[in-house]
């Protein structure tokens, strides 16, 4: 029996190289080894107000991007969260079993709430309970995510333990996070002290997976560095460290090899070579994306068929929990 992998990504547009190196690349690389379910989390996306038409088209766009990046429909199931109502139903039960204090500790909520001020929704606050529901519905073993999701995974594990101690150990399966060695936290090109983020609208902040080569080269050329010279993996110098980490993420080379390659070279060379590596790394994804999205109806029906395939697993888990809790 293969282990079950589950992970999710929001269809909020601007999918960037942080999403790729932190999550998507790992999903693709370990597909053959596991039984994989990948979810486009549109219910999570609406925790922030979305334009309805755009949300639909971004869901399709993301499906195209994930298939183009190498998610293989023969080996993995890719579906949209809202197609399986058990996610929202189990999330409600988990909300009720979740102590308020656990939610109040979530740093991602605090950061996002700070940005949105009084517009912030209740859904954004309880977002981690929906994420926990996503994971446990499929009796998941492993959850490959970037580092920013670590706290949500810890919350999920605490919640599983609490639910199992209330209702019995066979209620929910305990998941384990899987965070990559390289690329777990790609930082903004304009400000390497901040995580690369989809919602940052500064023009040189992120390289998006669908950026044309010229744009990629320009953004990397303008990336913030420092006034020193030597090119080393030094976490105290976040700008250069970030560029080198992205280089490592795309080439798969060791830190020592990369440092010796850049010995005696300047930041101009680093940026030029990194730009080329990223352009080349994204080229096959962009080419396949253009082919796949030529027929949007085909992507829509693939997502719907995939949801049909796994809905019984989710419904079985929901029923199990409902019975334990005394519902239905
Ligand atoms: P999101 O776009 O928030 O749905 O994130 C999708 C996946 O990408 C999650 O596994 C995140 O942890 C990962 N991710 C998002 N931003 C970054 C980043 N800057 N560096 C590395 N991984 C990231
Ligand atoms: N919260 C995750 C993010 O923003 C997305 C997500 C939703 C997820 N449900 C999940 C990731 C379940 C892993 C497992 O990145």
Tell me about this structure:
- By secondary structure, this protein is mainly α.
- The protein has two domains: 4-183 and 295-325, Rossmann fold (3-Layer(aba) Sandwich); 213-290, Tyrosyl-Transfer RNA Synthetase.
- It is 55% helix and 7% strand.
- The chain has helices spanning 17-29, 42-45, 52-68, 86-97, 100-104, 107-116, 122-125, 127-137, 150-167, 213-221, 238-251, 255-261, 267-292, 296-325; strands at 4-9, 35-40, 76-80, 142-144, 176-178.
- Strands 1-2-3 form a three-stranded parallel beta sheet. A two-stranded parallel sheet has the order 4-5.
- Helix 3 packs across helix 13, helix 4 runs parallel beside helix 14 and helix 11 (238-251) crosses helix 13.
- The longest helix is centred in the C-terminal third of the chain and has 30 residues, at 296-325.
- 39% of the residues are buried.
- The mean pLDDT is 97.
- It binds adenosine monophosphate and tryptophan (TRP).
What is the H-and-E element order?
A: EHEHHEHHHHHEHEHHHHH
Distinct ligand kinds: adenosine monophosphate, tryptophan
- How many domains make up the 3D coordinates? 2
Cα-atom radius of gyration: 20 Å
Any idea what the CATH architecture of the largest domain is? 3-Layer(aba) Sandwich
* Poorly predicted parts: none
CATH class of the largest domain, please?
Answer: Alpha Beta
Structural class given helices, strands, pairing?
A: mainly alpha
